[in-house]
Amino acid sequence: MVERVTSVQCELTIKLSNATTIPLKLDVFGEQHNLVNYITNISKNESSSAQGVNPVGVVSSDTLTIELKSVDRSLIPENEASPYFGFMDNTAIILIKLIDEIGDITFGKMYVSQWSPQVTSSNPYRVVIECTDILSIIGKSSVPSINMPEGMLTKDYFLAVIDAVNLKNDSDHQLNYTASDISFSEFPEMQFSGIDLTNMSDLFNIISQSTLTNIYIGRDNKLKTDYCCNDTASESVCTLSDNVNLLNISPTTGGLVGFNGVKVNYNIGVINPISKVVELTNQQLVIGENSFTNIDLGGNVFKINIIEIVADDGSEPVITLVEYSKNNLKILLTSVTSTTCSIYIYGQTVNNSQMFIEKYKDTINNNSVLTLTNTMIPASYIDKFCTEMVSLLGKKNSRLTVAGWINPRILVGDTVYIDAAASTKLTGYYKVITATWNIAAGIKGSLQLMKLIGE
User: Does pTM surpass 0.85?
Assistant: First the structure.
């Protein structure tokens, strides 16, 4: 990989919801001033790392900001004379790529969140488009009900939920993945009690925190996972040096500075014998398909074992679909007659009791404790979870922010070697957790780096 990159070509395409595409080029040293619409600046932020105190548990979305000059005003949303009027909104999709001496660098598919004119006296044609990746879009979706057999693996549950959400979306708004990129191998099994959530963003966050695994979107527009406690598997892709490509190097600290230990609250569930959970009487059936949704299960159901349908006229309705969570049940059944029936649901409930475990780096400052709640992984994994978190307390604090003429082929999750001995005496292998690219007349990058664990 080339160590120093000062300029690249940039191509951007706006795809409107009416299938119209708008190609745009970057203004480099005034070359595009003969065009009526052109890009003046692009800023792309890519991240795999959670923000805030905990190194995992808050899944962040990539962002893109595009500054344009629309001399003919066709890219100003309020301009009714524009051929694009009515489509310059959050239904638009942005495709961006860079071109260097090797070839194309795809920067991913982004989704417009805001498209607005931001004119000034010196720039009356300025337009700013702000975008996010698909993770932000999917995060607003509700969590679908997925059947959960005993001993279900986290990966299986996670992908089943993704597939269920994708069924509701068109091809442009699906959360795609390659199965090999998704791994929760350190905490493979899950328990049922901790996934009663409002939307997909909540689900991403709780899975991320419970498994110490960052969840993010790669430049190939596919879902990725990255286990925080094993960063030594990858090889370094390049060297970043204060003598070659870096203009600024500054040591920073992570959000875990000052904590000496962790306290993890967790649940232990006792599964009860099979019993009647719900009884519904005088339910109307019509000929053909019948749907019963949002049947209240009381919030503590572990497994549905038997569903009995008793028709008042003696017919035998056929159950064609059963979906449930610990709170709600959905049943589809087919009837050959119009009648009433009773529905008897038998299952196993679970009684949860909360416990906690504490661990420390040392016993000197055991009052500085980070408190976490982990209700998703089984109790048998909690000791390992605590051990890994204590490891993070010590090793996630060593961070750097570097900026300069950095190669945009560097990806979030890559390992780089830092040679900053001339200015800061810092050397060693670091992992890229955030990358910001500013593209105007030239290209500059800013990376947030984290010291490799176990180096």
Answer: no
